[in-house]
């Protein structure tokens, strides 16, 4: 497919290990989803097997297939409705080219403000990735990508023809300059572009080498980035655990990494409590509990922070239709207390 000039857009960092069915169940995203959307925006149809053994097809070979629009219900349902056995995906033409620019800033808040300004200006980069100092230091030591030692770093990538790339990057660099960057480095070759991405792509593995960590996944409106980063810093101090921030900043999908030591009794519990506070903060500013990793077991008890009991009742009623005996992933997504009667029915 790639050799013929085509590609499938969603690019989770876990792509070497995960399967398309898992991506559909979790509505996965990735660095390039700012421009192309997440799995749900690139999925045309699925075949699923229901718990009574029947095989049904939803969607088709093109967008907006006939019938009820059930694809959105299946995508992101965390394996609770049926088993996906086939999928039809939207395959796109590869752009002529792509080029990243690396920006360093004196504070996370200034970097967050720069992201807001880029989005407000109406340019649509293919990716805007963010790292703060703890992540920059660890990634640089691990990947030797040539990152500047500053408080926050952005990688902004645009694509198109050379002319289109130049035009977009000129505007983006002009916006960045209004925030007094300590570094503004545009890749001049494929090699330099690869080096800029290398550190970011190694981030999770690099952090794992220095400590245990819990990776959060929540979303916020991009305009709230500066405030949320400041609050995460305050919460980190309050709970006594360091938090590294690396995330898809363009679409507000945050992945704060809370560092802790599993060998110190009580630290995991403190880490989980801090994680819950950060996710509640995401909801408080108008975001939600999950961007791409799902709710699963970890966040099921926080669902009532985002939804009313009636909201959850409506969502559980959908599961009743597809899986009346609640056999598929019964203990995921919904607070155990809310789903208790159904699970024991
Ligand atoms: C290091 C790391 C980086 C990650 N980076 C990203 C990222 O950038 N973006 C992102 O979105 N996610 C990321 N993830 C999370 C995760 O990898 C993705 O959500 C991925 O889509 C899960 O796919 P999987 O095939 O591994 O599914 P699994 O983990 O095996 O399963 C996930 C869920 O899907 C259900 N499921 C699996 N197969 C089916 C099926 N055939 N039918 C119905 N339900 C099914 C399972 O029951 C489970 O609830 C990351 C995870 C790790 C560990």
Written overview of the protein:
The protein is an alpha+beta fold and 345 residues long. The chain has two domains: 6-93, Uridine Diphospho-n-acetylenolpyruvylglucosamine Reductase, domain 3 (2-Layer Sandwich); 96-294, FAD-linked oxidases, C-terminal domain (Vanillyl-alcohol Oxidase, Chain A, domain 3, 3-Layer(aba) Sandwich). The protein contains 13 helices and 14 strands. A hairpin with a 5-residue loop joins β2 (43-49) and β3 (55-59). α4 runs antiparallel to α9 (225-239) and α9 runs antiparallel to α10 (267-284). The protein starts with 5 loop residues before the first strand and ends with a helix. The model has no long low-confidence stretch (mean pLDDT 93). The structure holds flavin-adenine dinucleotide. Residues 12-14, 18-19, 21-23, 25-26, 28-30, 78-79, 83-84, 204, 292-293, 329 line the site of flavin-adenine dinucleotide.
């Amino acid at each position: 497919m790639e050799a013929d000039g085509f590609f499938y857009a969603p690019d989770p960092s876990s792509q070497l290990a995960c399967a398309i069915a898992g991506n559909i169940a979790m509505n996965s995203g990735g660095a390039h989803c700012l421009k192309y959307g997440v799995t749900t925006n690139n999925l045309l149809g699925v075949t699923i097997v229901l718990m009574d053994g029947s095989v049904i097809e939803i969607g088709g070979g093109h967008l907006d297939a006939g019938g009820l629009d059930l694809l959105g219900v299946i995508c992101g349902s965390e394996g609770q409705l049926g088993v996906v056995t086939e999928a039809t995906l939207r395959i796109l033409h590869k752009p002529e080219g792509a080029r990243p620019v690396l920006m360093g800033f004196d504070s996370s808040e200034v970097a967050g403000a720069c992201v807001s300004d880029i989005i407000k200006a109406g340019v649509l980069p293919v990716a805007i990735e963010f790292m703060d100092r703890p992540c920059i230091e660890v990634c640089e030591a691990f990947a030797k990508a040539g990152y500047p030692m500053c408080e926050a770093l952005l990688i902004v990538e645009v694509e198109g023809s050379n002319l289109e790339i130049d035009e977009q990057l000129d505007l983006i660099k002009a916006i960045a300059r209004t925030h007094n960057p300590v570094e503004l480095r545009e890749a001049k070759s494929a090699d330099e572009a690869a080096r800029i991405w290398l550190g970011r792509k190694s981030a999770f593995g690099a952090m794992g080498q220095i400590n245990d960590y819990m990776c959060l996944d929540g979303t916020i409106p991009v305009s709230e980035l500066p405030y949320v980063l400041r609050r995460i810093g305050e919460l980190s101090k309050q709970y006594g655990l360091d938090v590294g921030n690396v995330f898809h900043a363009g679409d507000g999908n945050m992945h704060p990494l809370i560092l802790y030591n599993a060998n110190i009794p009580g630290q995991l519990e403190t880490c989980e409590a801090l994680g819950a506070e950060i996710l509640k903060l995401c909801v408080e500013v108008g975001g939600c509990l999950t961007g791409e990793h799902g709710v699963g077991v970890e966040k099921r008890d926080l669902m009532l922070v985002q939804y009313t009991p009636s909201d959850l009742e409506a969502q559980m009623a959908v599961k009743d239709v597809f899986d009346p005996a609640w056999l598929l992933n019964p203990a995921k997504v919904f607070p155990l207390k809310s789903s208790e009667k159904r699970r024991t029915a």
